[in-house]
Amino acid sequence: MLMKTASQSLTEQLSARFAERIRSRLLAPGARLPSVRLCAEQQGVSVSTVVAAYDQLLAQGLVVARKNRGFFVRDASFNAALAPISQVQAATKAIAGKPAATDLAAGLAPLGAWSTASWIATRQAPVDATALIRGMFHKVSNKPQPGMGVFPPDWLETSFMPTAVRKVTSVSALRDFSLQYGEPMGDTGLRRALSHKLSALNVHAVPEQIITTVGATHALDIVSRTLLRAGDCVMVEEPGWAVEFARLDALGMRILPVPRRADGPDLEVMAQYCEIHQPKLFVSVSVFHNPTGYCLTPGSAHRVLQLAMQHNFHIVEDDTYSHLAPEHATRLCSLDGLQRTIYVSGFAKILAPGWRVGFMAAPPDLVERLLDTKLLATLTTPPLLEKALAWCIDQGQLRRHAERIRTRLDAARARSVKLAIAHGCSFAAEPAGLFGWVDTGVDTDALAQRMLDEGYLIAPGALFHAVRTPSTLMRINFATTQEAAFWKVFARLRDAVK
Fold first, then answer.
1. How would you classify the pairing of strands 435-439 and 459-460?
2. What is the separation of C-alpha 255 from the centre of its chain, rounded to a whole number of angstroms?
3. 44-48, Cβ contacts within 8 angstroms, sequence gap of 24 or more
4. Do 295 and 287 touch, CB atoms closer than 8 A?
5. 3-state secondary structure at position 460
6. Which residues neighbour 405 within 8 Å (Cβ) at sequence distance 6 or greater?
């Protein structure tokens, strides 16, 4: 609640609060500010105070006013972002409703004729995902953050990681790999360790098929830049990882959202996309899908691979959460044998976010092309951290650490689920893995700004769709939502939004 002080008026405090959120991208470009009357009620101030605060934001060039519509965060592409998106929304709704193939063709045919620029202009700008990422690095408060996609730092504290670094940094070793670039494909020892680790998942890849990267996101980017060109169609599961939608959009790709079900992607929609748009790539999270927690079934996996062979597209399988999942979980790469599939994973989620070590395992005929893209972007990857990670894997430290995390997460998930249900929420998907897909019963975009006032960053459901539309869903992190204090604040503000 705002409090008038001798040094700062209520107007200045309110203006400063919005300005900070806009500059830190917690309020994304194109986002609408609360109406004057609603803002006054939320902040406990007069309407005139809000009007004066919004005038200050206008004067600073942070917002724009639109007649009969309200105030919006300014952005260079804002005018384009506000263009009608009825065609895209109609297409998305048609897909969700599983129309006949002729209906789908009629609904999506205009997309094939659009230029890449037109496609991007008619979609909401992808800054919503970057707003969530910036929130990860912008300290909202000292409270646990439900919207974060990572484990709390105290969960990841270990004694073996410093030991691993010391093991690989003797005076002679440090001199050798500090004064020259690392190996183009990545440290040989790490690639051998990764090859052995993948075999436990029934993904058979020799070290020569493995390329290390600066995190899993970098691996996904290398795949996209190697296999795709601006204007190409890419199938992506929806709901899905907000960053992937934003990243592909920024590269100029045409995103084809595939509804994700409990057993896997909607195969009817995929088949119709293949007939009409000849997509070049399918991006999938088979195990502990983000945000739903779903896991792919063998039957769905076989059908997806059949479509890939029939329609000549590649599949990139993002297995970021493999450390939390059972080894026997169904993975497309294990069934396909890395023929049309590319396996991507990393260690930021489970071990060391700051080390930024990821990797991909690819079909032999794609390795050199993928390596060229890596070299053009980053030359090589840091050998010190890769050698330290190889030691952690070889010594069994990573495996034991992951087992401890899984045990702790199981307990946290049980507590979070009980608290969510006790405070009037339901789960849109069976709780599993790190994330819960929760139905709040209210618009979570509106709720998100109210929660920020209380020091909590949440992840609204709209973030996880290719075309942003209002949603009552939100993704929660089970590791950071096991305290009753958060749920009490959530319930109070949810009821206020109602």
1. unpaired
2. 15
3. 44/1, 44/2, 45/2, 45/10, 45/14
4. yes
5. strand
6. 151, 155, 323, 324, 350
Q: How far is CA 166 from CA 82, 162, 388, in A?
A: 54, 6, 8
In 10 A of CB 364, how many CB atoms?
Answer: 12
Handedness of CA 86, 88, 91, 95 (dihedral sign): negative
State residue 142's pLDDT score: 85
Average pLDDT on 179-190 reads 91
Integer Cα distance of 54 and 448 in angstroms = 20
Q: Tokens in use for 366?
A: 């794609």
pLDDT digit string, tens, across residues 328-343: 999 999 999 999 999 9
- Classified as helix, coil or strand, 420 is helix
**Single-letter code of the amino acid located at 424:** G
Number of H helices, E strands in the chain: 22, 13
Distance CA 463, CA 291 (A): 10
pLDDT, averaged across the chain: 86
Of residues 378 and 360, more confidently modeled: 360
Contact 408, 416 (CB under 8 A): no
Report which of 216, 228, 119 is spatially closest to residue 466, judged by C-alpha positions: 119
What is the percent of the chain with per-residue pLDDT over 90, rounded to a whole number?
Answer: 61
The token pair that represents 355 in the structure block: 């080390």
> Rg for the chain (alpha carbons), in Å?
24
Per the CB < 8 A criterion, the answer to whether 219 and 347 are in contact is no
Within 312-396, where are the H helices?
Answer: 332-336, 364-378, 383-394
Tokens of residue 128, six digits: 């919503």
CA–CA separation, 28 and 132 (whole Å): 9
Amino acid 67: pLDDT: 85
Tens digit of each residue's pLDDT (9 = 90 or more) over 309-328: 999 999 999 999 999 998 89
Question: Do residues 146 and 457 touch, judged by C-beta distance below 8 A?
Answer: yes
Q: Which two tokens stand for residue 258?
A: 């595939």
- Pairing mode, strands 233-238 and 281-284: parallel
Side chain identity at residue 10, one-letter code: L
Token pair listed for 42: 């939320």
Of 49, 56, 63, 39, the C-alpha closest to 11 is: 49
